[in-house]
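pinned: reference chain
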Amino acid sequence: PNHPTYTRPTVVIPSRLAILMEEPAFPTASAIAMNEQQRSELLRIARDAITSELRGQRTPCVSDVSLPAAAGGAFVTIRIANQLRGCMGTFSPKPTLAETVDSVARLAARDPRFTKNPISIANLSKAHIEISALSTLEKTDAPTDLRLGVHGIVIRCGEKTGCFLPRVAIDFNFSAEEFLERCCTSKAGLPAGAWRRPGTEVLLFTAEVIEEQRVAYDK
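pinned: its structure tokens
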């Protein structure tokens, strides 16, 4: 079958997040600021890494574009027809942002949650790729003061850890407490109210969200 030709990626910020991101995030450090050329280059790196991984290749990550250092890590999300097909990330970045994106994009292509219906070269042209370049993590003593759609969260209690990216709160219309509770139960394997416990850490971060332009087959 004929597949649409892949063209130069366009940076898109979801409209519901754009309004929330106009004000500075508090108290977390700002995510990485990038220009359009840098954002487009990261999307190219992510797509090339996914393609290479699906072909069983280990091509080196090479870029002629000057990219910022990796601050707090990155996540790569893959969707087809608006359905999640892979999402992996790290808060322990490699020396460069390009290497970090390359690494987590490969992991997203092999997300173990989707082994029964994995991404393949055959359907990669239909895939929509999103990158979240993360700020550093900062502990908060007032978790419910987080700004929905701007702050992502990491919840740690003993050896258990869970994470939600900022847009999760918007996609599911969570309140601050629901955001924290769902992260505890669905990601960290903790009781819903565990984020309130004295021994539990709640850390905040922000994300520079970069995504490819959605095309007709992804609407």
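why pinned: Residues 36-54 form the longest helix (19 residues). Residues 1-28 have pLDDT under 50 and may be disordered.
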